[in-house]
Amino acid sequence: MTAPQFEPLTIREIEARPVVLKLQRPVVARIATIEEWPLILIDLHTEEGVTGRSYLEPYVVKSMRYLVPALRDLSTLLKGRKLAPYELFGAAQKSLHFVGYGGLSMIAVAGLDMAVWDAVARAAGMPLCCLLGGTVGPVKAYNSNGLWLRRPEELAEEAVELRDEGGFSGLKLRMGRDRPEDDIRTVEAVRKAVGDDMHLMIDFNQGLDMAEAMRRCDLIDDLGLDWIEEPVVYDNLEGFARLAAQLKTPIQIGENFYGPRDLHLALQMKACDLVMPDFMRIGGVTGWMRAAAIAGACGVPMSTHLYPEVGAHVMRVTETAHWLEWQSWADPVLQKPYEIRESHLHILDTPGIGLEWDEEVVAAHRFEL
């Protein structure tokens, strides 16, 4: 039997379009309030007619003024190159060597990388998870669409709504109110509303200093939480190591790992019990796969951060796959959002990642740089 032959694709253009959406439930965290959600829609056009798609969620609207030109520069640099994901990832990184591999450089490269993998999978006629060696199937997810810093009574009601959005068995709450007693009251109110079987994760969004983190985390250590996420600023690995050694509740970090080496360093320092890389910072699919190998070798559970569509595909081939973070903030621009049933995200059985833009919504929410 002859193995199938795939003709390599050639980059013609990388198109990057900025849009801004209104959040249904605004982000209200200790360090910021966000009502508008920026997205950069990336279309990687090839000479052969296949288009790979991805998006970036850079949090801050003005950051698109830097990222969109960077992606357009990569389009000029890589025009005519064959679509080989690992080679293009390396070439894009090296082109920014003197700027640095982290920060906005990594975010731009990650956006390119996810679109490259999508195009390659589309050309092969396979869902991305199958191209990576897995199968199409469900991925366990928790709902991260709300439960921000509001009154306990309001959040108890909202928790029931979030549970019922997809039969969820896990919810994430945010903490960092002025009084720690109010944080505890919130967990208790949500627990009472959704039941003892619900998995509850909490996130401080880097809002505490070390002294406050040690005190507050100790106060909530017996609340039956699945994890405590980022109580202190993300690069304080020594501080995270102290907390991980002190607490029974697992410490979760990783959304601010810029590349797999950051994950490796955190695990070397015993700075966490769990990891949850973000795709725009870890380096897209390429960065995730490299990071997943490290987490797998260490036996550390690995969850996703944002980007549920690409996240679902790579979780199907991640050795220590744990939880997928589900949020629907990009759904308005998608023709066919992924479906959530019984606390699992169900991958579309279509070639690539399955992203197709709703061009009417995109046109109505375009952002002028």
Describe the protein.
The protein folds into two domains: 11-125 and 359-364, Enolase-like, N-terminal domain (Enolase-like, domain 1, 2-Layer Sandwich), CATH 3.30.390; 131-346, TIM Barrel (Alpha-Beta Barrel), CATH 3.20.20.120. Helices cover 38% and strands 19% of the residues. It is built from 13 helices and twelve strands. It has helices at 64-78, 85-95, 103-124, 128-131, 152-164, 180-194, 210-219, 237-246, 260-268, 279-282, 284-298, 308-315, 359-364, and strands spanning 11-28, 33-46, 51-56, 138-143, 170-174, 199-203, 227-229, 251-253, 274-275, 324-326, 339-341, 344-346. Helix 2 (85-95) runs antiparallel to helix 3 and helix 3 packs across helix 11.
Structural category is alpha/beta
Strand line-up in the sheet with most strands? 5-6-7-8-9
Number of strands: 12
Q: What's the CATH architecture name of the largest domain?
A: Alpha-Beta Barrel
Number of helices: 13
CATH topology of the largest domain: TIM Barrel
Q: What portion of the residues fall into strands of 2 or more residues?
A: 15-25%
Can you summarize the main beta sheet?
5 strands, parallel
| Rg from Cα | 20 Å
Mean pLDDT: 95
Question: Could you give the order of the helices and strands?
Answer: EEEHHHHEHEHEHEHEHEHHHEEEH
Measured between the Cα atoms of the first and last residue, the distance is 53 Å
Outline:
The protein is of the alpha/beta class. It has 13 helices and twelve strands. The protein folds into two domains: 11-125 and 359-364, Enolase-like, N-terminal domain (Enolase-like, domain 1, 2-Layer Sandwich), CATH 3.30.390.10; 131-346, TIM Barrel, CATH 3.20.20.120.
